[in-house]
Design a protein that fits this description.
five-stranded parallel beta sheet, two-stranded antiparallel sheet, Rossmann fold
Length: about 350
């Protein structure tokens, strides 16, 4: 690594650390025992599921591109956990496994999809990057950045259209569109922000700023690294939060949901987070410094929540260990189920391409 590269990485790390100490977000969400254990379970399920995916991939049991979510669990659990499952809508990226789990898609269905089995949530046709579940209002994972944002915009438009044109007072669903920092220099991002604010659509734009777009450091790729400020150009509410703090994310999501359901329009939430693994399982992850990785490892969102639960007397190590064991059994069951499931029938190669 050259001196220039080392200097660039140091500036990147110091810049993000400084932002974390001067966040401009609102208050964190309230916490009680029930919510705390629910969030802990959801984040732990996401982490253990992804660890198992890595194991299966390196054992040669899983193929294709696999992008893991380790480290970013507070964003998925914080946002989706504040929403109404099977009522609100969710649009993901190619890093979509944990979004699907938070949205309620069973671990068996998600794992089966990663193995390309008929029992997968996309019938084995989608794989890791294209999870979809109509039942759970998951509008898909998308391989190309920015692809899912217009889809999410359409879902939000339909919610308002049903309410205003068809006088459906029960139509108050909100859509969450997840995407990374690399997407925020993409034209679809700006176009959709403009349309969402123009029409006051019930949508939350969730930027998972994990500092790296594959191997491109965020600060080197954009003229203004503070993405939440880009909402101002459209007269939209923007907020930045500590994406390693599930309660901070949940609080921002709750405020955004209240605005959306009351007809006040969209919100752009920038979550400062970090992926603990490389861009994908095929990435040797040699571009990021060990100092940077260690800095963010100390902010592990699951460990932080476990500490808060203990400090407030809502739980203890033994109870949390018990939850972890239950989740390990659930994840192992998902693998066994996926391995024993049938492959898609080759005679049905074109099935699901066109509407019946």
């Amino acid at each position: 690594m050259t001196n220039d590269q080392e200097g660039s990485q140091l500036l990147q790390q110091e810049g993000h650390a400084e932002r974390l100490t001067s966040l401009r977000g609102g208050e964190s969400a309230n916490l009680d025992r029930e919510i705390g254990l629910k969030l802990f379970r959801d984040m732990t399920l996401g982490r253990r599921f992804e660890d198992k995916c890595a194991e299966m991939y390196y054992r040669g049991k899983m193929f294709g591109f696999v992008h893991l979510y380790n480290g970013q669990e507070a964003v998925s659990s914080g946002v989706i956990g504040a929403m109404k499952l099977k009522h609100d809508w969710f649009c993901s990226t190619y890093r979509d496994h944990v979004h699907a789990l938070s949205a309620g898609v069973p671990a068996r269905q998600v794992m089966s999809e990663l193995f390309g089995k008929e029992t997968g949530c996309s019938k084995g046709r989608g794989g890791s990057m294209h999870l979809f579940s109509k039942e759970h209002h998951l509008l898909g994972g998308y391989a190309f950045i920015g692809e899912g944002i217009p889809i999410a915009l359409g879902a939000a438009f339909s919610s308002r259209y049903k309410k205003e044109v068809f006088s459906d007072e029960n139509s108050d669903s909100v859509t969450a569109a997840f995407f990374g920092d690399g997407t925020c220099n993409n034209g679809q991002f700006f176009e959709c922000l403009n349309m969402a604010q123009l029409w006051k659509l019930p949508i939350i734009f969730v930027v998972e700023n994990n500092k790296w777009a594959i191997g491109m450091a965020h600060n080197r790729a954009t003229s203004d690294p503070e993405i939440w400020r880009k909402a101002n150009a459209f007269g939209m509410k923007g907020e930045e939060v500590d994406g390693m703090d599930v309660l901070a994310v949940r609080g921002a999501a709750q405020r955004a949901l209240e605005r959306a359901r009351s007809g006040d329009g969209p919100t752009l939430i920038e979550c400062l987070t970090y992926r603990f693994r490389g861009h994908s399982l095929a990435d040797p992850d040699e571009l990021r410094s060990e100092e940077e990785k260690d800095f963010w490892a100390q902010k592990d969102p699951i460990e932080n929540l476990a500490r808060i639960l203990a400090e407030k007397g809502f739980s203890n190590k033994n109870e949390l260990k018990s939850i972890e064991k239950e989740i390990d059994l659930e994840v192992n069951d998902a693998v066994e189920f996926a391995l024993s499931s049938k492959d898609p029938d080759p005679n049905e190669l074109t099935k699901y391409i066109w509407a019946d």
